[in-house]
Amino acid sequence: MLLHQRVKAAMQLMTLRDLPLSEIAIAVGFANQSHFTKVFSAQVGVSPATWRRGSLGTGESEN
Predict the structure, then answer these.
(1) Quick one: pLDDT at residue 7?
(2) d(Cα 57, Cα 29) in Å, to the nearest integer?
(3) What percentage of the chain's residues is helix, strand, coil (to nearest 5)?
(4) Quick one: pLDDT at residue 57?
(5) Are 52 and 7 in contact (CB under 8 A)?
(6) Whole-angstrom Cα distance, residue 55 to residue 2?
(7) How far apart are CA 42 and CA 18, in angstroms?
(8) Which of these, 16, 62, 21, lies nearest to 41 by C-alpha position?
(9) Tens of pLDDT, residues 40-54
(10) Cα distances (Å, whole numbers) of residue 26 to 3, 36, 62, 63
(11) Could you tell me how far CA 48 lies from the centroid of its own chain?
């Protein structure tokens, strides 16, 4: 449950602010970006970078 809350908080930060993923990982309580990426990918199904690009509407297929 705690990891789910951390991932949810990270999602909010990724959509609201242009912070590096490493800073977001630390801000929401992960030990490092690698751990954040592993947990995020397991829960969401894509990497944080991929999710961020999709959520911000910067996907290449959106032209």
Answers:
(1) 97
(2) 27
(3) 65, 0, 35
(4) 75
(5) no
(6) 23
(7) 23
(8) 21
(9) 999 999 999 999 999
(10) 13, 9, 31, 34
(11) 4
